[in-house]
Amino acid sequence: DDQIGGPTYVGDLVKLILTILHHVKFRDYSFCGTYHYAGYPFVSWYEFACVIKDSLASDNNCIILPIPSSRYLLRAKRPLNSCLDSSKVQSVFGVLPSDWRYAIKVINGH
Taking residues 49-53, what's their average pLDDT? Predict the structure, then answer.
């Protein structure tokens, strides 16, 4: 519950990649560089799991418990804040990340 990031809908990534490919097709390479892209708003993994659970059928009796990273041991250490700044993508390509909560509704057919 202490790791924060921006869940990213694959549909948004597809839009961004197609936009970049459009520039490549017309040999416009003025955009070359490093870009970050992530969904918004930023959220903890715990909150993300709760939203997913809440979007499922009402008879779902799954219990989600928040735990700090210190109690979830992994081989690779993960940053507490993995929020990416997508402003460069937005200004160069005009592609805005969607609200990941909307993507969950789309995926679940709501």
Answer: 91
What does pTM read for this prediction?
0.82
Concatenating the DSSP letter of every residue in 66-102 gives ---GGGS--SS---SB-----HHHHHHH-PPPPBHHH
Report cis status (omega within 30 of 0) of the bond before 41.
Answer: yes
Tell me the CB-side half-sphere exposure of residue 21, using CA atoms within 13 A: 6
The answer to whether residue 110 scores a pLDDT higher than 80 is no
Is 107 a residue whose pLDDT tops 80? no
Q: Which residues of 57-89 are buried (b: 16+ CB within 10 A; e: fewer)?
A: eeeeeeeeeeeeeeeeeeeeeeeeeeebebeeb
Residue whose tokens read 């708003």: 41
**Which token pair is 8?**
């990213």
Is residue 91 within 8 Å of 35, Cβ to Cβ?
no
In order of 12, 19, 24, 26, 88, the CA distances from 15 in angstroms are 5, 6, 14, 17, 15
